[in-house]
Amino acid sequence: MGAGHDHHHGSVANVAHRHLGRLWAAFGLLGTLMVVEAATAFGTGSLALLSDAGHMFTDVLGIGMALAAITATRRTSRDPQRTFGLYRLEVLAALANAVLLSGVAVYVVVEAVRRFGDPPEVVAGPMLAVAVLGLLANLAAFGLLRAGAQENINLHGAYLEVLGDLLGSLGVIGAAALIAVTDWWWADPLVAVAIGLFILPRTWRLGRAALRILVQAAPEHLEVTAVHDRLAAVPGVAEVHDLHIWTLTSGMEIVSAHLTTAPGADVGRVLTAARAALHEDFKIEHATLQIEPGASPGVCGPVEW
């Protein structure tokens, strides 16, 4: 016999839905400023502003992924063929984000290094004005996302992105002010390199996390052996096998396992205790557990894969 548990998907959706208006506001605000920054970067020749626009793109995409996840929760039950809903779209978007932004960051760093030999003149006035607008937009988005960041992992990720981009905007403002006062053109490529090097490790971590989910590896923060041993320690469990742990999307871990019970064990109590152990010790809300009474050999046939 088996049992599943699926309250977590609803809780993720409910938390996010409460902050839907704030998410859309932050998405629109940062998206608009991202376009303005990119256009001004090309117009002024500022690499620092271009790199900051690239970093702001991660903010916009991060919020977009949170919005996509909310949409996915609403559509989960509409198509009976999509038994896991559309949650993986968020992971695919994260991987695309990592690849695209890595390319932008590498381009900015390489171009900045090339410019050190003969830095071109940069129009500091528009660069400074747009950088200040970017800072104000990030401060506004920071305030919009702050409330939900403590309740939802997707909102928390977007919140951290905006927090990081605040530093980038301050760097561009500093570079523009320095150029305006001293005509020290090296300030622009220096800040561009700093922002590019700040972005790269974060995008690689994002890409690595997305790939782990897509290949259905166990979450890094969960030790499979620890979960196995905890289930084996449940009173009435004689053996644990066919244990699988994977992530559906950020914050949604899933477990499936077969539990062979000792002779005379109460199957209902074993199932309840196993679920409670997964919830209390590992914060796992979705578990499908197959109970195999020890007195019934051959219940679990061999698996070829």
TrEMBL record:
Q: Which family does it belong to?
A: Belongs to the cation diffusion facilitator (CDF) transporter (TC 2.A.4) family. SLC30A subfamily.
Domain (Cation efflux protein cytoplasmic) ranges: 219-293
User: What's the protein here called?
Assistant: Cation transporter
Give GO terms: molecular function aspect only: zinc ion transmembrane transporter activity
Q: Which GO terms describe its cellular component?
A: plasma membrane
Membrane-spanning residues where?
Answer: 23-50, 56-73, 85-110, 122-145, 157-179, 185-204
By its UniProt entry, which Gene3D superfamilies does this protein fall under?
Cation efflux protein transmembrane domain
Q: Which organism is it from?
A: Micromonospora deserti
InterPro entries per UniProt: Cation_efflux (IPR002524), Cation_efflux_CTD (IPR027470), Cation_efflux_CTD_sf (IPR036837), Cation_efflux_TM (IPR058533), Cation_efflux_TMD_sf (IPR027469), CDF/SLC30A (IPR050681)
| Pfam families tied to this protein | Cation_efflux (PF01545), ZT_dimer (PF16916)
Membrane topology, as annotated, equals: Multi-pass membrane protein
Instruction: Specify the Cation efflux protein transmembrane domain's residue ranges.
Output: 23-215
Task: State its location(s).
Answer: Membrane
Keywords (alphabetical) are: Ion transport, Membrane, Transmembrane, Transmembrane helix, Transport
Q: Does the keyword DNA damage apply?
A: no
